[in-house]
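Recap quiz, item 2
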Amino acid sequence: MSRYRFSPLLAAAAGVIALMAAPLVAEAHRAWMAPSSTVLSGSDAWVGVDAGMSNGVFIADHAAMRLDGLTILGPDGQLLEPENMMRGRYRSTFDVHLTKQGTYRIANVMGGVVASYTLNGERQRWRGTPAEYPQGLPEGATEVEASLSAMRVETFVTLGDLSDDVFTPTGHGLEMVPLTHPNDLVLDEPGRFRLLVDGEPAAGLEVTIARGGTRYRTSPEEITVTTDADGIYSVEWPQAGMYWMHAAVQVPGADGKLPLSAQYNGVVEVLP
Amino acid sequence: MKPLTLAATLPLTALALTGAAPLPSGDLTVSITLPRINSASYHRPYVAVWIERPDQTAVRTLSIWYDTGLPAGEGKDWLKDIRTWWRKDGRGLTLPADGVSGPTRAPGTQTVTIPASRLRDLPAGNYVLAVEAARELGGRELVRVPFRLGAANTASGTGETELGAVRVSVAR
């Protein structure tokens, strides 16, 4: 399907980038999380999540996702530890034990500052967190060019009744605030979502909507929608299924702010 | 099989305080045929019965049959498989609920009678009776039957796979 899949060189390069947790990898490969269930009942439930990077969403055939930035936020505002974490060749996997009623946000947030600089006549690279920049650069570095990257991969699950406490944005990178609850999506009712970049509405952004199961059909059947002035986009679901929603944005630097390269990858399930 | 008792959940004094004009309706009777399904691993279906407005917003869950007898409320783990009901009303309910929840029922024609007292706060008008069945290792089906509260009437619908005939009758 994609020429990338058959290129050992590009695959190797993508692997190296993934190890460095840089966000650009998914320009070639899509980053996704696939929960085993999104809507659950009872007092106690488990959800298994696969996380991978590949051309076909939810098809684990390329690279496992590093989960260094994994946070699982419960409906009561408490963070949960993933259980049974395993990194396979093509996918990482972990379980989430749900014991509180309400909605959980399972997010892997990666990124940081990448800087290139000249020291003793040689061009060098530096990586670090925003807090470490610029004091983490070596003494005497000149011609510094730095940029910030932020990548979010997330999904949502609900035990029992819906809640919305986990939707509060952090104000960093590209984030999605649901207007339709992500665990209340059904066929024949459009889903509405708002994208924010550093906490402000991300207007005029293209959002790619891809449904899983591409292996079993000939057309990818992808949808592209554009956010309005308030950063809002709406999706008419053509079928039930697991959907991947993706957007990316580049924000030029301004005084005191580094240029930002951010991307969002959200996974939601639409029930029949 | 334990018979399902649908007792009036509100004492008359409470009803008098609701201020709603008493609905001149009689009891609501719903009969549901659960088809006999030949399967090596047959499990009785989970079934939800509820009232909707004509725009399909849920008004009230009347009856929910699930594995009420399992320890630690484990039977509730599969309530979400009655998908439409779960989304429209189920996930907001606390179960078990008196006069609403009961054990799963056997194939055949099952009858549920909702006493008029449980419907008295509903204004007369057009409604839809919804029945949804979901079966372990089987399918799921939803049957909707439009009916009227406030006058004697009968209505019926039928399913094709997990449900047979669904009949609704309002006494007066």
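The first strand of chain A starts at residue 30 and ends at 35.
Residues 87 and 93 of chain A are 6 Å apart (CA to CA).
End of item.
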